[in-house]
Amino acid sequence: xxxxxxxxxxxxxxxxxxxxxxxxxxxxxxxxxxxxxxxxxxxxxxxxxxxxxxxxxxxxxxxxxxxxxxxxxxxxxxxxxxxxxxxxxxxxxxxxxxxxxxxxxxxxxxxxxxxxxxxxxxxxxxxxxxxxxxxxxxxxxxxxxxxxxxxxxxxxxxxxxxxxxxxxxxxxxxxxxxxxxxxxxxxxxxxxxxxxxxxxxxxxxxxxxxxxxxxxxxxxxxxxxxxxxxxxxxxxxxxxxxxxxxxxxxxxxxxxxxxxxxxxxxxxxxxxxxxxxxxxxxxxxxxxxxxxxxxxxxxxxxxxxxxxxxxxxxxxxxxxxxxxxxxxxxxxxxxxxxxxxxxxxxxxxxxxxxxxx
Length: 357
Ligand code: RB5
Hints:
Layout: E1 2-7, H1 12-24, E2 28-31, H2 42-55, E3 60-65, H3 69-75, E4 83-85, H4 89-97, E5 103-107, H5 116-124, H6 132-145, E6 152-154, H7 158-168, H8 174-192, E7 198-204, E8 209-215, E9 220-226, H9 230-237, E10 244-245, E11 247-252, E12 259-265, E13 274-278, E14 281-282, H10 286-297, E15 302-310, H11 312-321, E16 326-332, E17 335-336, E18 342-343, H12 349-354
Parallel strand pairs: 1-2, 1-3, 3-5, 4-5, 6-16, 9-10, 9-11, 9-13, 13-15, 14-15, 15-16
Antiparallel strand pairs: 7-8, 11-12, 17-18
Helix pairs in contact: 2-3, 4-5, 6-11, 7-8, 8-9
Bound molecules: D-ribose (RB5).
């Protein structure tokens, strides 16, 4: 195991103790400085250590500044790094078991050098627990992949979570699956339409005049990606019945695996509409990104993607290809398997909607 270490002047004495302790445990140490107690700026060493961890040069990192706080703030700017300030063994243990800290930060003005060993041992000897903590870490990873302009919204609403739980179950019938997909899509509309513009109006109630607000004629379009996206359309139209519906058909070229268009019919005024592309499973993100490109090529400007279950890989792909597009997902899962299925996911949404398997 190799650990990169670094410090500023305020962590210099502590670093000596840390390097000695790590070497006494047979750990290979990559010392990124500083090498004297002269004044230094902690971001320099923090970014060097974080870079070593993110690139794989080191398996993990240890940083020391006065408090451990500045070093962790700087290290966390590097993608893939999970740095945290742990100035006692319990924080270090929980930092590993819950947060899978890959950079441990300590404060040379907070702890004494002879306290470092217990903190390091608590961190090194603990295992990440995964499970619910992995779900949370994946949310951080998704946010990291989305540090561009559009938002990534994962629905935490209990009703959505409850219904997602049922459609994941392989024993859920086609009929129930289809109904629940519509219901979840409908629930998602509340968040998706949160920023629709309103205009003020006045109506007469049986009792008096009332100031009311109504949606100010915004044009909307829903565009399901065939065929699984069809399963979400009616749930959305129940709440926004005046939306126009376009359709996109894509297949995967067996030779190149690239998505190829076989059908595309969009409302003619697509450029004036807020567009919601529907694709229940955001797996690799290849077809979602291609569908968004297609809509943009036909003049679409304000595009959002609605899916039921997203994998971090799919979010990353869409964010990289279309940083302006907002992604709404009812759930964020762990990863893709070797066949490109979302894990744990719910299987093939198209087959489960249409009973074709
Ligand atoms: C340096 O004086 C000190 O501010 C720094 O080591 C650190 O504590 C910052 O978080």
